[in-house]
Specification:
- Helices cover 11% and strands 46% of the residues.
- With 196 residues, the protein is mainly beta.
- The chain has one domain: CpcT/CpeT domain (Lipocalin).
- Strands 1-2-3-4-5-7-8-10-11-13 form a 10-stranded antiparallel beta barrel.
- Strand 3 and strand 4 form a beta hairpin.
């Protein structure tokens, strides 16, 4: 793997919380944990992504596998996969034996829902690939996802919003701006040496 991907993964892997933001403004920001854990036995760059609400930590509302690949010099593509049966792996972030059972055939590639990441201002900035083709069904309605993140040091900011494919109006997502996460656990030491 390239030095760029190795640097990105060392910066990314860990557990993040927006506790400060959520406690400061609970009506607008739920308290959320984001977790990025290497899956050592899958293809290089494979990371388990888990998102949970602090009030329900054992039931992730989003469970994905992202895979980092440098497609051109300095540009990382994050391939986005969901699980065929996510309930089978809901404990995988903290259960190594469960994590070891994840196989390539358990994953479904999410068409048009991949991120382009570049190094920017001492950190990494990622945006969903252009084209408004990452479709998300929410509240009985089809929307397209607009998503971005910025990772710098131990700070991660994210912004996810769903828009109507016809009017382009916002249908869901933060009305108060970015979520601000702080890393509370660093899992960079779990990245296999062969990935770096």
């Amino acid at each position: 793997m390239s030095a760029t991907i190795g640097h990105f993964l060392r910066n990314l892997c860990g557990e993040y919380s927006n506790q400060h933001q959520a406690f400061e403004n609970p009506p607008l920001f739920a308290h959320i944990f984001l977790r990025y854990r290497p899956i050592e036995h899958l293809r290089p760059g494979s990371i388990l992504l888990e998102q949970t609400y602090a009030v329900d930590p054992k039931h992730p509302y989003r469970l994905r596998v992202i895979r980092a690949e440098e497609v051109t010099t300095g540009i990382i593509k994050l391939w986005n996969h969901t699980f065929k049966e996510p309930d089978h792996f809901s404990s995988a972030t903290f259960d190594k034996e469960c994590r070891k059972t994840i196989k390539e055939e358990d994953l479904i590639l999410l068409d048009h829902c991949h991120y382009q990441v570049r190094q920017l201002d001492g950190g990494f900035h990622g945006e969903l690939e252009p084209g408004c083709r990452c479709i998300v069904h929410r509240n009985g309605k089809e929307t397209y996802l607009v998503s971005s993140f910025h990772l710098q040091g131990d700070e991660l900011t994210t912004l996810d919003r769903g828009h109507d494919p016809h009017t382009h109006e916002r249908c869901w997502g933060s009305i108060a701006g970015e979520f601000h996460f702080q890393r509370i656990n660093n899992w960079a030491e779990n990245i296999p040496d062969k990935w770096l």
